[in-house]
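Protein 1 of 2
SEQ + STRUCT:
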Amino acid sequence: MKFRFKAFGLHLLASSVALSSILGALYFGWYRWPGWYLTDVGHVVIVMVSVDIVLGPLLTLIVARSSKPRRVLARDIAVIVAVQLCALVYGTTSLWSGRPLYYAYSETLLQLVQAYDIDAKESALGLKQNPGLAPHWYSLPRWVWAPLPQNREESVKIIQSSLFGGDDVISMPRYFKPWDQGLSVLRTKLKKVDEIARLSPNDKKKLKEHMAAAGLAVDQPNGMPVTGRGRVLLAVFDPASVKIVAIFKAR
């Protein structure tokens, strides 16, 4: 039994170090607040933890016996590790392809843009036409302004595409502009919490409680929704400087 627990402990330690290193790098590089919440990747992390931290070491505890021939034991553990690596590769690939690249202000809201939202064609056009704000494999999340193009024909084309589930301007880096350039427009789109249609009455109530607790005005036009994969947050701005002072979730 001592042999089993020693094998279990070593396997658990190795698995924990490997998974913690990967998740830590992804979190601090790309998924820091509000990225982790908006991407809603908890299910991917649960799979990774379940296989790599729970299932793998437990199976080692079961198969590891001091009486078992070392060759057989090595084979059994190799199979377990192979399954763990598959789960680790799956999870890491999913998190990498969905990593936050931009928080884009466009029209009336802020939207999370993930790596897989930008296809290869748009990425290439961005690198060619707008290299300063185009995505690279190493790009960290950036706050940008994504206005519709001034060309009316192109603008209408993009709007029609987005209405039917096609590409929107937030997935076209060639049109992105620096965040600061859009602040004067953004200021005019700020709303009171009660005026934001994307929030339910209960959400508005909770958010006003959070704002009041933080000493922020709840009766001024200082808010804008931040959207991700089915989730909505509230960004609260200082109307004078147009700087984000807080980002709240309703629950």
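Protein 2 of 2
SEQ + STRUCT:
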Amino acid sequence: MAVGIGRRQFISALGGAAAAWPLAIQAQQPTMPVIGFLSSGSQRTFVDQVAAFRQSLGEAGYVEGQNVAIEYRWADGQYDRLSTMADELVRRPVAVLVASGGTVAARAAKAATASIPIVFVTADDPVAAGLVISLNRPGGNLTGISFISGVLSAKNIELLREMVPAAKLIAVLVNPNSPGTEIQLKDTQDAANTIGVKILVLKASTEHDIDLAFTTLQQEHADALVVVADPLFTCNLVVPIAARHTAVPTVYFFRECVKAGGLMSYGTSLIDAYLQLGAYVGRILKGEKPADLPVVQPTKFELVLNLKTAKALGLTVPLKLQVAADEVIE
């Protein structure tokens, strides 16, 4: 009888061990890392940027849904939501926090954590914005990509004057809620004063505001328009609105806007920035530290012209601009 009881106990114990095997195997499997994607913009207008980010992340060996998960938080232009969203992602917790859509998102991410790596994209000077201590050696837990677009304001005013020599009033579309707006406006005003043109400031902090801004532009009879670099003013949002509202010559900061039908741009590539964003996140997931990754800056700025749009606007593009252009879209 004792032998029978021992046998039953042995079988029971063996069964229990077998049932525990899947749990033990599962415990040994590495946990899929989670990337927090915090954006001040909207999912609808950031489709191309997210696609570029995923592409580069995949090239680094991380494919969403296979060996990495991505948690998205979209503020839809409501910047007061960013702090709460950043806190949510930190509590998740995430392995890396992406701050997409300017300094305002990066600051919210920085305030939420001093330990989780953060990679940002901004058009502002990240040192002046207090995100990093230097561009080459960021220090802390942040690094990223910066366009430092303020230095391009003067060039964009000059380009518009060359395109429209008779221009006397140039409108500037800005987002008053963005941290770098005052600096961008000062640089633009200084450039306008140098060449003797007046500036009309158009403020927009929502998509609806953009429509209203273009109505004001028409009412004030502005001769040309500068659209500053801002996460709200995505190419697939602003370019169609501009085409619908007005035939005013417009210069943008990103080449993608010209490919979308804008007249011209002087600056860099927004898609390249998000490709670099994915590359940096991949490197951090593999063990590198943000403090050791320099903030990426554009190595060159390019002039891109759209001759088809110029023709539709009734403009003759000066030969000087066509020769100087890095790319001309026929």
